[in-house]
Amino acid sequence: MNTIHLQILGTIILFLLLFLGNLIFRAVLRRIDKRVHFALERKKIIYKIVHLFIFLLAVIGLIAIWGVDPQQLFLFLTSTLTLLAVGFIAQWSILSNITASLILFFNHPIHIGGWIKIVDKDMPIEGMVENITLFFLYIRTKENELLSIPCNQILQKTIAANAKQTVIEQIQSPNKESI
Of 45, 48, 34, whose CA–CA distance to 105 is shortest? Predict the structure, then answer.
């Protein structure tokens, strides 16, 4: 076998291993989900993160198999990282929003579908958390307004999460001020 045939065979084996790894990951996540009961949005984000990791492994494996010159690869990576660093410094709020959304998603008592109250003297907000994205937290109010609040602003506010009262009870209950 010549070199090109070995590289093609190595590429096929790499993709088969990554495919099997993906199947094993899905099985493990299903088993964990039976015990923990992840929300659908959390599962989607976990899948995206793992698929990104698998993609990076594929790129590294292909670079190793096809013998890309390490000096050229290093030059390309440092140039790309420099451009990303300049971009992030220029857009610091983007980085803070992404970090805040990850904190909200993984390490905060609020969850999608939960009822929260943002305690703010200027503009208190109360409603159901509809979505948590990389940049915004979306809240549906009793008046059926959809509010989008930057994630980094949410971390700076006091949040009251009302887990005992369901969203349906909140929306269907009459307004106490109108009685």
Answer: 45
Rounded to a whole number, what is the distance in angstroms from the first to the last CA of the chain?
Answer: 85
Q: Give 37's pLDDT tier (boundaries 50, 70, 90).
A: confident
Residue 175 banded pLDDT, cuts 50, 70, 90: low
Residue showing tokens 């983007």: 94
Beta pairing partners, 117: 126, 160
Domain ranges of the chain: 1-68, 71-173
Residue 139, judged by CB atoms within 10 A of its CB (0-12, 13-18, 19+), counts as buried
- Scan for tokens 């992404």, then name that residue: 98
**CATH 2.20.25.10 applies to domain 71-173:** no
